Amino acid sequence: MINIKENESLSIINHSCAHLLAQAVKHLYPEAKFWVGPVVEEGFYYDIDLGDITLTEDDLPAIEREMKKISKDGKRIVRQELTKSEALEKFKDDEYKIDLISRMDEEDTVISCYTQGDFTDLCRGPHVETVKVLKNFKLLKVSGAYWKGDAKNHMLQRIYGVCFETPEDLEAHLKELEEAKERDHRKIGKNLDIFMSHDLVGKGMPLWLPNGAIIRKNLENYIYEKEQKLGYKHVYTPCVGTVNLYKTSGHWDHYKENMFPSMKVDEEEFVLRPMNCPHHMLVYSNDLHSYRDLPIRIGEFAADFRYEASGAVKGLERVRCMCQNDAHLFVTPEQIGEEFKKVVALILDVYKDFGLTKYKFRLSLRDPEDKEKYFDDDEMWNQAENKLREVLNEFGLDYYEAIGEAAFYGPKLDVEVKPAVGPEVTLSTCQLDFLLPRKFELSYIDKEGNKQIPVVIHRAILGTFDRFTAFVLEETKGLLPLWLSPVQINIIPVNNEYHLEYAEALYKKLKDLNIRVELDSRDEKLGYKMRESVMKKIPYAIIIGNKEVEENSISYRKCKTEETINVSIDEFINNILEEIKNKGN
Q1: How far is the C-alpha of 464 from the C-alpha of 304, rounded, in Å?
Q2: Disulfide: which of 17, 45, 126, 144 matches 163 by Cβ 3.0-4.6 Å?
Q3: Cα gap 36→156, rounded to integer Å
Q4: Would you call 80 a catalytic residue per the annotation?
Q5: What is the phi-psi region of residue 254: left when phi exceeds 0, alpha when psi lies from -120 to 50, beta otherwise?
Q6: Residue 564: other Cβ atoms inside 10 A
């Protein structure tokens, strides 16, 4: 989906259309006053004071009709420049404009406003030349918004819209918006009882319901098995640490604004951990190590807490409490290349299982001019960045470099995946770290018996289970692959009097094989139960009628298909177990 704000021509069109919206509202509601109407990623909005009038989406068509009427009139949009004093006089009856003008610093500041017909608004521009070009627009929704974004202020009404150069572009965009609504993991999560939220728990603190817990547990088991085969050792560590722990690691100085406030308990000061690397440094330091012990791979499914602004939290995608698929690899300098390759190979293996093909690699580097954000050691940075380049080039991967996107202690590889809708998201990361082992005075004994400092590779394959679940739900529209689906099979007897006993025996047989199965024995019509099975996104529905009982067989239908297939019970079970084992591949 296109980012309107980053497209110069569309940004100008949408900003101009925001004024068209304001003019139409002023015609329909003469007492209306306007705060700001910026361009945003999805189009534009305008914050409006309508007094006691509350708009609903039912009011938007009338506003659109007035906008079209103004557009057909074709008035030119004229820019006028004013001094601050002239602007204060011109908008003296509008407290919102007076507030904006008064906060401009210099008395002789040149302030611009734009006029189109009978409507003039304060704005720096630029705008299109005439309202005539503003024909291909759509008002999307209306909501409340506090003046200046402050909950202590009164509520304004915010109308969202979007505008394009051609009707074809608008239609394509609206189709994408509808597709995005259908794929929104928050809607899917609610419909399929996967997760919930509650104000008593707090914003950004999702509650995983039983169906969601099954998904998450299967994701954990999936990646745990892969990591075990690669020699990872998993640990559990506390979700809090002392402030001194993060001062030692350096996070307190560089990451404090993203952490929850500290808590004083007895003589200690604790903080909810935002990441797990400091804990894992201490796990490594618990034993003496020789070069023969390395690499040591410490993994954890760890609960972390990060402060996100309340307006930024979103379902499972952006949360304040998350569970990371985290690991730290302690290696010798000579092992960096091989271990880095293994991490990339694991990423590619996982993406293959989930059918992900649209992704790219980003090598995130420091900005060498920024001595505040990044640890000041040019030799360390050059060594680390060159090493990652060497590995990526040797692996033959296409990648691009992003200056200023590294963490404060080292460069990293991010894998950006293109979802079905919306902008790219970062799912997997792999980061080289020469600094943290020094801070925690970690060591190993080399071949000559000398003490050396290990290098740490931070990596997260699924990222967080929260965000990965949101991603998969949106990719599949909730119709998850069989191995991951909370309910894998739904058994539906046609008539309980004649078919329920056979269905119950089949239910027990599947249950004993650890297949997640439900039996719908309600006294409802078959068509109704089949439609509900599809709405629940259950991959397989088994229909039991006279034929199936007489032949000791089953008939099944895959979700979202119309074909009904009759097979023996054993054949069906073998096929199901094989599909689960192979992750559908």
Answers
A1: 10
A2: 17
A3: 11
A4: no
A5: alpha
A6: 11
Token pair listed for 575: 């096929």
Give the active site residue among 326, 414, 466, 520.
326
β-strand partners of 303:
323
Q: Is the pTM of this model over 0.85?
A: no
Whether 320 is a known active-site residue: answer: no
Phi, psi of 133 (to 5 degrees): -80, -10
The alpha-carbon radius of gyration of the chain (Å, integer) is 30
At 145, which amino acid appears?
A: A
127 is catalytic: no
324, 335, 452, 488: the catalytic one is 324
The tens place of each residue's pLDDT in the chain, 585 residues long, gives 677 888 889 999 999 999 999 999 999 999 999 999 899 988 999 999 998 889 999 999 999 999 999 999 989 999 998 888 888 888 888 888 898 888 876 655 678 999 999 999 988 889 999 999 999 999 999 998 888 888 788 889 999 999 999 999 999 999 988 888 899 999 999 999 999 999 999 999 999 999 999 999 999 999 999 999 999 999 999 999 999 999 999 889 888 888 899 999 988 999 999 999 999 999 999 999 999 999 999 999 999 999 888 778 899 989 999 999 999 999 998 898 889 889 999 999 999 999 898 898 999 998 888 877 777 778 878 888 888 888 888 878 889 999 988 877 788 899 999 887 777 888 999 998 888 999 999 999 999 999 999 999 999 999 999 999 999 999 999 999 999 999 999 999 999 889 999 999 999 999 999 999 999 999 999 999 999 999 999 999 999 999 999 999 999 999 989 899 999 999 999 999 999 998 866
Q: What is the dihedral of CA 25, 27, 30, 33, to 10 degrees?
A: 40
- To which residue do tokens 């996100």 refer? 308
124 is catalytic: no
Catalytic residue among 412, 459, 467, 529: 412
Answer yes or no: 447 catalytic: no
Catalytic residue, from 127, 458, 516, 536: name it: 458
Mention every residue, 6+ apart, whose C-beta is less than 8 A from residue 381. Answer: 366, 368, 374, 375, 410, 411
Q: Dig out the tokens for 85 from the structure.
A: 């004093």
Supply the angle between the helices 336-353 and 378-395 in degrees, to the nearest 10. 50
* Annotated catalytic residue 318: no
Whether 229 is catalytic is no
Catalytic-role residue among 123, 277, 321, 323 = 277
Which of the following is catalytic: 289, 328, 459, 557?
A: 328
